[in-house]
Amino acid sequence: MNILFVANRFPYPPFRGDKLKIYNLAKRLSGKHKLFLITFVQDKKDYEYTSELEKYFDKIELVYLPKYLSVLKCGLKMFSKNPYQIIYFESSEFKKKLAKFLSENEVDLIHTQHLRMSQYTYDLKKYKRILDLPDAYSLYWKRRMEMTNNLFIDLFHKIEYNKVLKYEEIIKEFDLNLVCSQEDRDFLIEKHQIDYIDLLPNGVDLSSFNSEGHNYDIDDRIIFTGNMDYFPNVDAVQYFVSDIFPDLLKIFPKLKFYIVGQKPVEQVKMLRSENIIVTGFVDDLSKEYDKSAIAVSPIRYGAGTLNKVLEPMAMGIPVVSTEIGFKGLGINSGEGVILALNKPEFIENVTRLLSSKELRRQVGEKGKKVIHDNFDWGIISNKLESYFKGIIGRN
Known about the structure:
single chain, 13 strands
């Protein structure tokens, strides 16, 4: 098949999130299919990495969209009926380049990444089209709306939620929609009354995140990972540091909390203390996991399956997580991840794990098996390929 990936971000380096998914899928599908890519570049440094993507994509088209221009457009169109995420990625140049590419190349199927890119492919009915959503974006905004107490922010969240929910109707124009978790799927089916939504979870590169035998003697280090300029991650570490970590320090005075991830904003940097380490970007996340006793995911906004949960599981490291990092996994609590529904449960479960080497081993080894059986990128890419074939086979 000739498959065109329409992506919202340049998928290299594949450190986190959107970039990681497209890169790993393409890496595994390229030997079987002819792959094309059209995507935005927001930092001119990304052009240096084009050769890395040429290993997997036969043709690549790039459209430069500087962040300042996207922000300016959002400001100028603040009264638009479209949500900000759609406005942010609007580009007449992208639309023209996509049309030119399709006129000059044979394409069997278009894989569109994220709701924000659906604006470019929803009406291309000549082609088979899949919309790959990391999560139900309206569910993300619904949770933000429910979590704030500031009147002005409440109003902004409510307006954006309603805009997203209405714009999300666009998913009905695609041949198939994919989401990361059953929770996201159920939400979209209920809100939009369609059933052609299926599951494609995030995966783990087991060549990078793999441990022959984790050292379960480690009992004094907790880790959280993620892009530290992303609001749900910033909120999560602030919540953990203010509401949970002080109680843990009373029991474990030598405990260290490592916040590991690129681009930490000032609110995150301000959390630094003798027991709280903010690393910024690291070259090898697996080494940071390997030095940790447990990982935590105190996420309060978002949906889907989270890399910050999957990666430590792959290495046999137990995780304590809120529902948002847990529900998309399709597992029972204790199978790599212990579910914490509230602050007392979070403190209790972290305490239990730090107090018992054997419990850390049991939970960690179960999690490792879950990842190897269900979340290896090879398995995920095979699943996506089966969706491709199913769509192509339709009349």
